[in-house]
Amino acid sequence: MSFCLDTYLQQSDNYEIHASKAGFKDCAMIIRFKADDLVYIKPGDEVLGVRVIGIPPIPIGFDHKKGTVFLPYTKPCHGTSVVELPIDEEEIEKIRKLDTGNKK
Amino acid sequence: MKALVLLGCPETPSQTPLAVYVFNKLTKMGYDVTIAANPAAKKLVSISDPEGYYKLNIIDLERTLGEISEKDYDLLVGFVHKDAAASFFVTFDQILNTRSLALVFSRDADEVEEFVNMIQESGSNATIAAVRAFHNPSPIKVKFDRAIKEFE
User: Fold this and answer.
1) Which residues contact A79 (CB under 8 A, 6 or more apart)?
2) Is the distance from CB of A31 to CB of A103 less than 8 angstroms?
3) Lowest CB count within 10 Å: A10, A70, B41, B129, which one?
4) Quick check: A75 contacting B, CB < 8 Å?
5) What is the pTM of this model?
6) For residue B54, what is the DSSP state?
7) Secondary structure of residue B139 in the 3-state scheme
8) For residues A63 and B3, what is the distance between their CA atoms, to the nearest angstrom?
9) Over the stretch B116-134, which tens digit does the pLDDT of each residue have?
10) CA A63 to each of CA A34, A59, A93: distance values in angstroms, whole numbers, following the listed order
11) What was the ipTM of the complex prediction?
């Protein structure tokens, strides 16, 4: 069974929220600031079993020492949050394939 | 022809009557209309039509996001009155890659400008109808009526 972020956030406490109820641009800035490696994806691309919502280019960040990923997570009434959670190499490689290379 | 109407957070009073208005208008234009909304926004709209007069077709926003593909709809109309709503609109717009209309409104003129910029900076070709409004749906209705003419 594939990983699903929504289910993970409901059933695990092994994640960290770095910003909540924020605007998308602020969250994108936090991801760029905190991550030591970044890829940029398109809105609607699927990461960890969910389509990522946002304004392109959407940064997805990695902390390779900790083995974590930073991603924006948007809900209609709660704005955008930055979620950091553990990720394995296989999922990182899947995300790398989505990289648009467009940082602007 | 199929149209998808995207609702945002239901805390703005104007959204619910306008959702019914837009549904009715698009239906009369010949579109098969679907409204995508979160559970609270869905309830507000469906309770507004107790006799089922409008035959509102309302589906879950996040489930729809997971299921749609390019060209599933011929027209996307989105209510954009929060930062998150702008993000949702841009995301649906990019996935569907179809004709689209963003109804941008807020009680704060700076927010209206900010949401318009977010849509434009995304590279979207959406038609944008923007106005300062919150409680009173009339300014948004007027903007919508004018903008929707190009989709007739």
Assistant:
1) A20, A21, A22, A23, B82, B83, B84
2) no
3) A10
4) yes
5) 0.95
6) T
7) helix
8) 41
9) 999 999 999 999 999 999 9
10) 8, 13, 14
11) 0.92
